Amino acid sequence: MIEQLITNWLTQFAYLALFLAIIASTIAIPIPEDIVLLVAGYLAANHLLNLWAVILVSLLAVILGDNTGYWLGRKGGGFLLERFINTNIQTWVKKHYRKHGPKTVFFSRFMTGIRNLFHLTAGASGMKWKTFFIYDLLGAIIAVPLVIGIGFVFGKYLGHITWIITTLDSILLYGLLIFILLLALFACVFREQAKTFVLTKILHKKIKNKLEQQWYYRVK
Questions:
Q1: Residue 124, class by beta-carbon neighbours within 10 Å (0-12 exposed, 13-18 middle, 19+ buried)?
Q2: HEC-encoded secondary structure of 13-33
Q3: Most confident of 31-35, 165-169, 209-213
Q4: Per-residue CA distances from 103 to 15, 31, 110, 134 (Å)
Q5: Of the N and C termini of the chain, which has fewer Cβ atoms inside 10 Å?
Q6: Burial class of residue 51 in the structure, from the number of CB atoms within 10 Å of its CB (0-12 exposed, 13-18 middle, 19+ buried)
Q7: Distance of CA 1 to CAs 73, 111, 166, Å?
Q8: pLDDT tens-digit profile of 173-201?
Q9: Residue 211: inside a domain, yes or no?
Protein backbone atom coordinates (compact mmCIF):
# COMPACT_ATOMS: atom_id res chain seq x y z
CA MET A 1 0.00 0.00 0.00
CA ILE A 2 1.22 3.48 -0.87
CA GLU A 3 0.59 4.82 2.64
CA GLN A 4 2.85 2.13 4.12
CA LEU A 5 5.66 3.04 1.73
CA ILE A 6 5.33 6.74 2.58
CA THR A 7 5.22 5.89 6.29
CA ASN A 8 8.53 4.05 5.94
CA TRP A 9 10.11 7.00 4.11
CA LEU A 10 8.98 9.53 6.70
CA THR A 11 9.97 7.31 9.61
CA GLN A 12 13.48 6.84 8.22
CA PHE A 13 14.23 10.28 6.79
CA ALA A 14 11.71 12.47 8.66
CA TYR A 15 11.39 16.08 7.43
CA LEU A 16 13.77 15.70 4.49
CA ALA A 17 11.60 12.91 3.07
CA LEU A 18 8.48 14.98 3.79
CA PHE A 19 9.88 18.02 1.96
CA LEU A 20 11.15 16.08 -1.07
CA ALA A 21 7.99 13.94 -1.39
CA ILE A 22 5.76 17.02 -1.44
CA ILE A 23 8.00 18.84 -3.93
CA ALA A 24 7.90 15.77 -6.19
CA SER A 25 4.12 15.50 -5.96
CA THR A 26 3.52 19.18 -6.77
CA ILE A 27 5.48 18.98 -10.03
CA ALA A 28 3.43 16.02 -11.32
CA ILE A 29 5.68 13.15 -10.18
CA PRO A 30 3.17 10.43 -9.17
CA ILE A 31 3.50 10.70 -5.39
CA PRO A 32 0.09 11.64 -3.92
CA GLU A 33 0.54 14.87 -1.97
CA ASP A 34 -2.54 14.44 0.21
CA ILE A 35 -1.50 10.97 1.34
CA VAL A 36 1.96 12.30 2.26
CA LEU A 37 0.31 14.99 4.40
CA LEU A 38 -2.09 12.50 5.97
CA VAL A 39 0.75 10.12 6.89
CA ALA A 40 2.79 13.02 8.30
CA GLY A 41 -0.18 14.01 10.48
CA TYR A 42 -0.59 10.41 11.63
CA LEU A 43 3.10 10.17 12.57
CA ALA A 44 2.84 13.47 14.45
CA ALA A 45 -0.09 12.08 16.44
CA ASN A 46 2.13 9.15 17.40
CA HIS A 47 4.97 11.51 18.46
CA LEU A 48 7.29 10.36 15.69
CA LEU A 49 7.26 13.84 14.15
CA ASN A 50 6.53 17.28 15.56
CA LEU A 51 3.15 18.61 14.40
CA TRP A 52 4.22 22.25 13.98
CA ALA A 53 7.39 21.24 12.16
CA VAL A 54 5.31 19.05 9.85
CA ILE A 55 2.96 21.96 9.04
CA LEU A 56 5.83 24.40 8.44
CA VAL A 57 7.89 22.03 6.26
CA SER A 58 4.79 21.01 4.31
CA LEU A 59 3.75 24.60 3.64
CA LEU A 60 7.23 25.54 2.44
CA ALA A 61 7.38 22.50 0.15
CA VAL A 62 3.86 23.06 -1.23
CA ILE A 63 4.49 26.73 -2.03
CA LEU A 64 7.86 25.98 -3.63
CA GLY A 65 6.41 23.09 -5.64
CA ASP A 66 3.33 25.01 -6.79
CA ASN A 67 5.46 27.94 -7.94
CA THR A 68 7.79 25.56 -9.75
CA GLY A 69 4.77 24.21 -11.61
CA TYR A 70 3.64 27.77 -12.40
CA TRP A 71 7.03 28.73 -13.86
CA LEU A 72 7.27 25.50 -15.83
CA GLY A 73 3.94 26.44 -17.38
CA ARG A 74 5.01 30.06 -17.85
CA LYS A 75 8.23 29.16 -19.66
CA GLY A 76 7.18 26.07 -21.60
CA GLY A 77 3.42 25.78 -21.32
CA GLY A 78 2.66 28.33 -24.02
CA PHE A 79 4.64 26.30 -26.55
CA LEU A 80 2.86 23.09 -25.52
CA LEU A 81 -0.54 24.76 -25.75
CA GLU A 82 0.20 26.06 -29.25
CA ARG A 83 1.72 22.75 -30.33
CA PHE A 84 -0.87 20.27 -29.05
CA ILE A 85 -4.04 22.15 -28.05
CA ASN A 86 -6.81 23.39 -30.33
CA THR A 87 -6.74 27.19 -30.85
CA ASN A 88 -10.29 27.60 -29.51
CA ILE A 89 -9.37 25.75 -26.31
CA GLN A 90 -6.28 27.93 -25.91
CA THR A 91 -8.46 31.01 -26.17
CA TRP A 92 -10.95 29.60 -23.65
CA VAL A 93 -8.17 28.78 -21.13
CA LYS A 94 -6.66 32.26 -21.37
CA LYS A 95 -10.06 33.96 -21.03
CA HIS A 96 -10.90 31.74 -18.04
CA TYR A 97 -7.72 32.69 -16.18
CA ARG A 98 -8.13 36.38 -17.00
CA LYS A 99 -11.63 36.34 -15.53
CA HIS A 100 -11.51 33.59 -12.86
CA GLY A 101 -7.77 33.03 -12.30
CA PRO A 102 -7.60 33.92 -8.57
CA LYS A 103 -10.61 31.74 -7.69
CA THR A 104 -9.32 28.87 -9.81
CA VAL A 105 -5.88 28.90 -8.17
CA PHE A 106 -7.35 29.17 -4.66
CA PHE A 107 -9.87 26.34 -5.02
CA SER A 108 -7.47 24.10 -6.97
CA ARG A 109 -5.60 23.63 -3.67
CA PHE A 110 -8.60 21.58 -2.49
CA MET A 111 -8.82 19.45 -5.66
CA THR A 112 -6.86 16.30 -5.05
CA GLY A 113 -5.11 14.65 -7.96
CA ILE A 114 -5.48 17.37 -10.60
CA ARG A 115 -4.34 20.55 -8.84
CA ASN A 116 -0.94 20.40 -10.56
CA LEU A 117 -2.61 20.94 -13.94
CA PHE A 118 -4.06 24.23 -12.71
CA HIS A 119 -0.61 25.49 -11.68
CA LEU A 120 0.81 24.67 -15.10
CA THR A 121 -2.10 26.20 -17.01
CA ALA A 122 -2.03 29.31 -14.80
CA GLY A 123 1.54 29.89 -15.91
CA ALA A 124 0.86 28.96 -19.53
CA SER A 125 -2.13 31.33 -19.70
CA GLY A 126 0.08 34.30 -18.73
CA MET A 127 -1.50 34.86 -15.31
CA LYS A 128 0.56 37.33 -13.24
CA TRP A 129 2.93 35.56 -10.85
CA LYS A 130 2.10 37.88 -7.94
CA THR A 131 -1.60 37.05 -8.24
CA PHE A 132 -0.86 33.34 -8.51
CA PHE A 133 1.46 33.44 -5.49
CA ILE A 134 -1.02 35.25 -3.24
CA TYR A 135 -4.02 33.04 -3.97
CA ASP A 136 -2.00 29.83 -3.96
CA LEU A 137 -0.55 30.82 -0.59
CA LEU A 138 -4.01 31.56 0.81
CA GLY A 139 -5.29 28.18 -0.38
CA ALA A 140 -2.26 26.34 1.01
CA ILE A 141 -2.51 28.01 4.42
CA ILE A 142 -6.01 26.51 4.75
CA ALA A 143 -5.69 23.20 2.88
CA VAL A 144 -2.32 21.93 4.12
CA PRO A 145 -3.01 22.13 7.90
CA LEU A 146 -6.51 20.76 7.23
CA VAL A 147 -5.22 17.58 5.56
CA ILE A 148 -2.46 17.14 8.16
CA GLY A 149 -5.09 17.61 10.87
CA ILE A 150 -7.26 14.88 9.36
CA GLY A 151 -4.29 12.51 9.49
CA PHE A 152 -3.55 13.62 13.05
CA VAL A 153 -7.09 13.01 14.32
CA PHE A 154 -8.26 10.12 12.14
CA GLY A 155 -4.94 8.35 11.53
CA LYS A 156 -6.29 4.95 12.60
CA TYR A 157 -8.56 5.08 9.53
CA LEU A 158 -5.65 5.92 7.24
CA GLY A 159 -6.25 2.94 4.93
CA HIS A 160 -9.88 3.91 4.35
CA ILE A 161 -9.05 7.59 3.85
CA THR A 162 -6.30 6.68 1.37
CA TRP A 163 -8.74 4.55 -0.62
CA ILE A 164 -11.22 7.46 -0.76
CA ILE A 165 -8.52 9.87 -1.94
CA THR A 166 -7.13 7.56 -4.64
CA THR A 167 -10.66 6.86 -5.88
CA LEU A 168 -11.44 10.58 -5.94
CA ASP A 169 -8.17 11.21 -7.79
CA SER A 170 -9.23 8.79 -10.50
CA ILE A 171 -12.74 10.26 -10.79
CA LEU A 172 -11.46 13.83 -11.06
CA LEU A 173 -8.72 12.89 -13.54
CA TYR A 174 -11.04 10.95 -15.84
CA GLY A 175 -13.68 13.66 -15.47
CA LEU A 176 -11.16 16.30 -16.53
CA LEU A 177 -10.07 14.22 -19.52
CA ILE A 178 -13.69 13.75 -20.61
CA PHE A 179 -14.31 17.49 -20.22
CA ILE A 180 -11.24 18.32 -22.37
CA LEU A 181 -12.33 15.84 -25.04
CA LEU A 182 -15.87 17.26 -25.09
CA LEU A 183 -14.47 20.78 -25.25
CA ALA A 184 -12.22 19.81 -28.17
CA LEU A 185 -15.15 18.12 -29.94
CA PHE A 186 -17.35 21.17 -29.43
CA ALA A 187 -14.57 23.42 -30.74
CA CYS A 188 -14.20 21.28 -33.88
CA VAL A 189 -17.96 21.18 -34.52
CA PHE A 190 -18.28 24.92 -33.90
CA ARG A 191 -15.38 25.62 -36.25
CA GLU A 192 -16.94 23.49 -39.01
CA GLN A 193 -20.29 25.20 -38.51
CA ALA A 194 -18.59 28.59 -38.70
CA LYS A 195 -16.84 27.59 -41.94
CA THR A 196 -20.13 26.37 -43.40
CA PHE A 197 -21.87 29.60 -42.40
CA VAL A 198 -19.14 31.75 -43.98
CA LEU A 199 -19.15 29.70 -47.19
CA THR A 200 -22.94 29.92 -47.36
CA LYS A 201 -22.82 33.69 -46.94
CA ILE A 202 -20.19 34.01 -49.69
CA LEU A 203 -22.17 31.77 -52.04
CA HIS A 204 -25.38 33.66 -51.29
CA LYS A 205 -23.65 36.97 -52.04
CA LYS A 206 -22.26 35.68 -55.35
CA ILE A 207 -25.69 34.37 -56.44
CA LYS A 208 -27.30 37.65 -55.43
CA ASN A 209 -24.74 39.66 -57.42
CA LYS A 210 -25.21 37.40 -60.43
CA LEU A 211 -28.99 37.79 -60.36
CA GLU A 212 -28.70 41.56 -59.98
CA GLN A 213 -26.36 41.70 -62.98
CA GLN A 214 -28.77 39.60 -65.09
CA TRP A 215 -31.70 41.80 -64.10
CA TYR A 216 -29.72 44.93 -64.91
CA TYR A 217 -28.83 43.74 -68.43
CA ARG A 218 -32.43 42.64 -69.12
CA VAL A 219 -33.76 46.02 -68.16
CA LYS A 220 -31.09 47.75 -70.16
A1: buried
A2: HHHHHHHHHHHHHHCCCCCCH
A3: 31-35
A4: 31, 25, 12, 11
A5: C
A6: middle
A7: 32, 22, 11
A8: 556 566 656 665 665 665 555 455 445 55
A9: no
CA distance 115 to 52: 24
Is 103 among the domain residues? yes
Centroid of chain to Cα 188: 23
3-state secondary structure of 138: helix
Domain region containing 8: 2-191
Q: Is 103 exposed, middle or buried (0-12, 13-18, 19+ CB in 10 A)?
A: exposed
CB atoms within 10 A of CB 187: 18
* pLDDT tens for each residue of 68-92: 989 988 887 665 666 556 566 667 7
Number of domains present in the structure of the chain? 1
Residue 214 in any domain: the answer is no
Spatial distance between the Cα atoms of 44 and 155, rounded to a whole number of angstroms: 10
Residue 172 in any domain: the answer is: yes
3-state secondary structure of 198: helix
- pLDDT value, residue 1: 63
Backbone angles phi, psi at 31, to 5 degrees: -120, 115
